[in-house]
Amino acid sequence: MKKRVYLDYSATTPMKQEVLDEMLPYFTEKFGNPSSIHSFGREAKQAIDLSREQLAKSIGAKADEIFFTGGGSEADNWAIKGIAYANRDKGNHIITTKIEHHAVLHTCEYLEKNGFEVTYLEVDAHGRINIDDLKSAIKDQTILITIMFANNEIGTIQPIKEIGQIAKEKKVIFHVDAVQAFGNIKINVNDLNIDLMSLSAHKVYGPKGIGALYIRKGVKIHSLIHGGAQERRRRAGTENLPGIVGFGKAAALADENLEAHIQHVKVLRDKLIKGIMEKVGYVRLNGHPEHRLPGNANFAFEFIEGESLLLSLDMLGIAGSSGSACTSGSLDPSHVLMALGLSHEIAHGSLRLTIGDFTTEEDIDYVLQELPKVVDRLRQMSPLYEKVKGGQK
Amino acid sequence: MYSDKVMDHFMNPRNVGEIENADGIGEVGNAKCGDIMKMYLKIDDGVIVDVKFKTFGCGSAIATSSIATEMIKGKTVEEALQLTNRAVVEALDGLPAQKIHCSVLAEQAVKSALLDYARKNSLQLAGLEDFDPTEDHHHHEEEH
């Protein structure tokens, strides 16, 4: 079989065998509805309770502060809309950043059409917000600060502790989209003064279609999904039992293996970055050199376009992603790359390679052997390259 | 997403390169939008005897450039002027809807190179009177 190298762990991860093993009985013999009073239901309910505890433990929360959702996007929607509408009597102002995931950005845009005011903080060239910008954006009407822990494209980690401190002092609710950070950074919601936090299972070797929202006890929030009394009346709908069981197991594994995971992916990621920087000219690293997710590498190759790069790599079995406009179906490159102040030309040539637990050193060697050739082939075809190639590398 | 034909022309593009002392050169698109095509023509006695291209862009931009060069090579100038973006799409066994603009760009690159040839030789070419090589090939509002 053709060699295949998966370097798109930020898009999704394969499920771990231990997670699948834990889930399987809940599709068949342990299929009960957790709301049922009989033994089938109680068995299911117990499994959910255990998962809730596993998840709570992994972020330093209490079990009754964890609410399962249909994924990270639902958690973001719920947190932002739920807080906005529950606190409308206090104010209508929300602060976020220009580089949030679309689940946050489009939710904020929706609220703007419904009487809320949103401040989108700028980021610096590495993708970090300026704490003073945040301080000066807070006003009497501010009810929510929603800022991602780490960015999905460039991997930049925000100064969450400082933001949490400010939010606490100013008594503004603080929501964090930690979908990318969870399982890659040790997170304690109390140390960081986080009031709400969105999580997703499929980024941490768990199943797709299951996520969670951490809601600090005492935080007033409206429901997003109305109906039955599941999730302490806050999130209706019969629970995704196998998904919840899988998420609990994945969270427990992520927590247990955190140090080893970080070490493993970081070594490979650093080797990848170093190798590319040495072998390829006219390339830059997008995102912060230090404050970045351990498995994230994001390059901008000048004179070539990201989609043709992805296609070429795909032909070699290498899977990555790009912020190029041509991969998104829109005219503009990713809002994240544009917010860094990159020119359109540079942003079009971006390539994100994200490393995970199953990545091997041989995988990285293969990429280091093939990627420079692919870049060179495309550059030889590019009219932008001919203008610079005379003489220098 | 792409037909085998598109992938073939993307992975093995025909006629890549430049022509020294070309009789006509056309460049369309811009880096901001993520695609630029540059086309070089060698024309003898009104016949396109050689054609080369360079393209910065996505897979379909490279594939449409490549097949467009194949479609006009050996043709007369008048025949090449008949090349439509639709013919390019058909020759590639189709393109995804959001990539149709690449075929428009390929047609414009050919016309732009022919316009350059006509100007250099003080020729009037039927079909190029209204051609504007700077026209937005995306056919929708520029967002930047």
The CATH C-level class name of the largest domain in chain A: Alpha Beta
**Which band does the percent of strand residues of chain B land in?**
15-25%
How many domains comprise the coordinates of chain A? 2
**Sheet/helix structural class of chain A:** alpha/beta
Regarding CATH, which class of chain B? Alpha Beta
Order of helices and strands of chain B: HEEEHHHH
Q: CATH topology of the largest domain in chain A, which one?
A: Aspartate Aminotransferase, domain 2
Supply the number of structural domains of chain B: 1
Distinct helical segment count of chain B: 5
Oligomeric description of these chains: heterodimer
Largest sheet of chain B: 3 strands, antiparallel
Estimated helix fraction of chain A:
25-40%
Q: Tell me the major beta sheet of chain A.
A: 7 strands, mixed
CATH fold label of chain B: Sufe protein. Chain: A
Number of strands of chain B: 3
The total count of helices of chain A amounts to 14
Protein name (chain B): Nitrogen fixation protein NifU
Organism (chain B): Geosporobacter subterraneus DSM 17957
InterPro entries (chain B): NIF_FeS_clus_asmbl_NifU-like, NIF_FeS_clus_asmbl_NifU_N
GO molecular function, one term (chain B): iron ion binding
Task: Describe the protein's architecture and organization.
The complex is a heterodimer of chains A (393) and B (144). Chain A is an alpha/beta fold. Chain A has two domains: 5-12 and 258-390, Aspartate Aminotransferase, domain 1, CATH 3.90.1150; 17-254, Type I PLP-dependent aspartate aminotransferase-like (Major domain) (Aspartate Aminotransferase, domain 2). Chain A has 14 helices and twelve strands. Chain A has a seven-stranded mixed β-sheet, with helices on both faces. The radius of gyration of chain A is 22 Å and the shape is globular. Helices cover 38% and strands 19% of the residues of chain B. With 144 residues, chain B is an alpha+beta fold. In chain B, strands 1-2-3 form a three-stranded antiparallel β-sheet. The radius of gyration of chain B is 14 Å and the shape is globular. Chain B has helices at residues 4-11, 59-72, 77-81, 85-91, 100-120, and strands at residues 24-30, 35-44, 47-56. Mean pLDDT of chain B is 91; it is low at 139-144. In chain B, α1 packs across α2, α2 (59-72) crosses α5 and α4 packs across α5. Chains A and B meet through α10 and α13 of A and α1, β2, β3 and α2 of B.
